[in-house]
Amino acid sequence: MKSSLKTNEEFKPFFIDFLGVIEEQLLEIGFSYRQPKKLANAIKGLSDHFIGNEQRITPWNSKEFKAAYLAYYTPLNLWRLLHAYKTIAEDIPWQNLNKVLDFGMGSGAASFALDYMLRKTGFSAQLSGLDQSEEALGCFKEISKSQLEQLKVTQLADDFCSLTNGEFDFAIASYSLNELEVIPEELFKSKYLLIVEPSSSEESRLLMAMKESLIDRDFQILAPCSHQNPCPMLTTKKLWCHARTPALPQSQLNKIEEYLPFKNRTLTYSYLFASKQSEVATSETHYRVVSDPLKEKGKTRWNICSDKGIETLSLLHRVKLDLDLNRGDLLELDRNSIEQKKTELRIKDLNSVSIVKKDS
Ligand SMILES: C[S@@+](CC[C@H](N)C(=O)[O-])C[C@H]1O[C@@H](n2cnc3c(N)ncnc32)[C@H](O)[C@@H]1O
């Protein structure tokens, strides 16, 4: 599945429409995007809960927390997941996605984003949703009345024991594993697995470490890694692997953020996409850009990751090349025509770098 549109333009109508559906849910519990200050207070309360609480379980049991999760965190995760699916779209076996699991589905951001992607392919699938909170599943059910076209909900349950069919083609865990003490083994039975987690140093590093346990369970890592070696960032304290979405469209969320001490123009997240099915086309010449462009006097640098570890790619400004590289881009490098200066790989001409996959 290829698209020439930038992610933010392509997904904007769906995203704005989704906020309209959320508004209906908010009105039911005494909130509205038309009262952004009241929502901002609720969001601040939920953010404080996440920061101050070691347990970190999403509290669905109060109207304030529920409104905050629906109005703000659900659309943010929808935006993250749209970006994640688009990044890995070429490796998702859309035509063979018969049984899908959304683990810790909450209000369903990951499923709604997947449904939207399925609309583009014309394929459909059966969805099982799992969340320990009945309130969360209730929110999902309400939103799904108008937001699911390609996914047919076959079962919603509060734990794996209650699921009647545990063999999944694709399992997604979006922002849920960080709430668990132990990850259920059942999750690893899926043929394809997408795990999306917060982009903090601590949570990203836990996910990076999980790469090896997935490989031990016969998975191959399809993204973001371009290789099957242990994550090289784990050997440094300064770096952790995360992705960045394009800017969110202007929406009701901007009004809310006027009353918040934090703003989310672009969003970050960490992820691993793994499969037991595919033959991974690991290439010794493939490199993932794992930093934003780092502008310095006279040059721009990027951290790149490959089976050789983390290296620095650089472009001296006086070389005057038009090269637009961003976090998440997958590159192919011809090392023979790149100049190595200590630990830095200096680009001398455009023939030495080609972009295999542009991130959004
Ligand atoms: C931060 S929310 C993420 C919701 C949704 N996946 C998203 O991306 O917005 C985490 C969800 O995981 C659920 N959860 C936490 N521990 C769980 C467990 N042991 N089994 C099932 N669900 C769990 C919580 O109830 C909550 O709805």
Task: Please provide a written account of the structure.
- This protein has 360 residues and is α/β, with parallel strands linked by helices.
- It folds into two domains: 7-275, Rossmann fold, CATH 3.40.50.150; 286-357, Nucleic acid-binding proteins (OB fold (Dihydrolipoamide Acetyltransferase, E2P), Beta Barrel).
- 32% of the residues lie in helices and 22% in strands.
- The protein is built from seven helices and 16 strands.
- Strands 1, 2, 3, 4, 5, 6, 7 and 8 form an eight-stranded mixed β-sheet that branches. Strands 9, 10, 11, 12, 13, 14, 15 and 16 form an eight-stranded mixed β-sheet that branches.
- The model has no long low-confidence stretch (mean pLDDT 93).
- The site of S-adenosylmethionine has 19 residues, from helix 3 and helix 4.
- S-adenosylmethionine binds at residues 57-58, 74, 77, 104-106, 109-110, 130-133, 136, 174-176, 179-180.
List keywords for this structure.
single chain, 360 residues, alpha/beta, Rossmann fold, OB fold (Dihydrolipoamide Acetyltransferase, E2P), eight-stranded mixed beta sheet, 16 strands, 22% strand, globular, binds S-adenosylmethionine
